[in-house]
């Protein structure tokens, strides 16, 4: 069956662990050893093959357990509305430890944080963020609660009130709901922790992208610790058709979304102050993502019109970037508009002569001009 998702974790500078899932509910975990010289090949070996169920797994996330080197936790999310956690070693078999319930629709995205540092505690905690078609984002906190021997004697029904408890190696862990984030008005397709700016330091910032054509940045308030939406950017155009994913830049100053129609949407924080943020839209590369079937020039030659089997008509024209400097005037060609987003592959296009010079006709597979 086809591969639906993939995730990876760098164990060391020369070794990585990779997990991939297929549409038939099988997850394979691989160990990848990188060569010391570029002329050599990577060594890949299969550590385990997990048969989940008949329903597809659509998202994965992999992390190392806190204070437990060599042991990893793998989160699986799919069409049964549950998050499944598996634990295993870098050289051994992965076993199921618990299931997390709460979402009421398909799980769309999962992402583990790095171990959390604070003044009160060491790196005993990691967080898992999940998003779903139920329009809700959930943050789960995985905590190291003690060594396995002492907890096996103390485990009671009351121990499970906050969340599932499981043993991995010599330690016991508990995972519970940290927060539930509600703000999007449609399916939340993507969630992602901000990358570390300083080595091994995890910023508490989550980027979410939704089919409601918005991306949001979530952070906990300093005084209360309550997670709130601090930034919201998006598109008003009907051509956007929602965002399928959102990603941080490595330095955390830019966020990029990609849409159903093959479009990119980029915002950059241009504020020089750490106390305030000003996210402005930036220029991005764009173009058709299928075979272009016809092109035509505007009668005056000021722009080019193209149609494609991606079911869109697009306008390309030159754009001058002056920015107040007459000597450094640049001219580039960009996609400026999509005047037609169709339901069928478009095969031909022609401009219509007349006043205004901005009318065209197109023909598509449904036999209507």
From TrEMBL:
Q: Which Gene3D superfamilies match?
A: YVTN repeat-like/Quinoprotein amine dehydrogenase (2.130.10.10)
One of the protein's GO biological processes: tRNA wobble uridine modification
Which superkingdom, per the lineage?
Eukaryota
Q: Which pathway does it serve? A: tRNA modification; 5-methoxycarbonylmethyl-2-thiouridine-tRNA biosynthesis
Q: What is its main location?
A: cytoplasm
* A Gene Ontology cellular-component term: cytoplasm
Q: By its UniProt entry, which PROSITE patterns does this protein fall under?
A: WD_REPEATS_2
Where can this protein be found?
A: Cytoplasm; Nucleus
Q: Which stretches are WD repeats?
A: 100-142
Question: Keywords of this protein's UniProt record, alphabetized?
Answer: Cytoplasm, Nucleus, Repeat, tRNA processing, WD repeat
UniProt lists the family membership as follows: Belongs to the WD repeat ELP2 family.
Official protein name in the record: Elongator complex protein 2
Task: Please name the source species.
Answer: Noccaea caerulescens
Give the source lineage, highest ranks first: Eukaryota, Viridiplantae, Streptophyta, Embryophyta, Tracheophyta
């Amino acid at each position: 069956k086809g591969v639906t998702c993939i995730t990876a974790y760098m164990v060391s500078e020369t070794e990585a662990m990779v997990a991939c899932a297929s549409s038939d509910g099988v997850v394979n975990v691989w160990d990848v050893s990188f060569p010391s010289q570029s002329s050599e090949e990577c060594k890949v070996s299969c550590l385990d093959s997990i048969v989940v169920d008949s329903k597809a797994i659509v998202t994965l996330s992999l992390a190392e357990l806190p204070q437990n080197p060599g042991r990893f936790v793998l989160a699986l999310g799919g069409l049964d509305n549950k998050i499944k956690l598996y634990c295993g070693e870098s050289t051994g078999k992965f076993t199921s430890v618990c299931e997390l319930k709460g979402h009421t629709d398909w799980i769309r995205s999962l992402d583990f944080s790095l171990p959390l540092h604070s003044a009160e505690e060491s790196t005993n905690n990691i967080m898992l963020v999940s998003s779903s078609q139920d329009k809700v984002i959930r943050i789960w906190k995985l905590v190291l609660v003690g060594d396995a021997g002492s907890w096996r004697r103390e485990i009671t029904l009351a121990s499970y009130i906050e969340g599932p408890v499981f043993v991995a190696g010599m330690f016991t862990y508990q995972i519970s709901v940290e927060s539930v984030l509600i703000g999007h008005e449609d399916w939340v397709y993507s969630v992602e922790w901000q990358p570390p700016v300083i080595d091994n330091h995890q910023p508490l910032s989550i980027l979410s992208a939704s089919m409601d054509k918005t991306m949001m940045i979530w952070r906990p308030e300093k005084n209360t610790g309550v997670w709130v939406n601090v930034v919201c950017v998006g598109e008003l155009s009907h051509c956007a058709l929602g965002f399928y994913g959102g990603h941080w830049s490595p330095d955390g100053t830019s966020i990029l979304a990609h849409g159903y129609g093959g479009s990119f949407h980029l915002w950059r924080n241009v504020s020089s102050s750490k106390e305030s943020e000003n996210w402005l839209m930036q220029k991005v590369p764009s173009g058709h993502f299928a075979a272009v079937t016809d092109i035509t020039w505007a009668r005056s030659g000021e722009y080019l019109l193209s149609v494609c089997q991606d079911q869109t008509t697009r306008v390309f024209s030159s754009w001058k970037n002056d920015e107040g400097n007459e000597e450094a005037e640049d001219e580039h060609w960009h996609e400026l508009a999509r005047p037609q987003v169709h339901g069928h592959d478009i095969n031909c296009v022609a401009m219509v002569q007349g006043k205004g010079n901005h009318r065209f006709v197109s023909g598509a597979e449904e036999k209507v001009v």
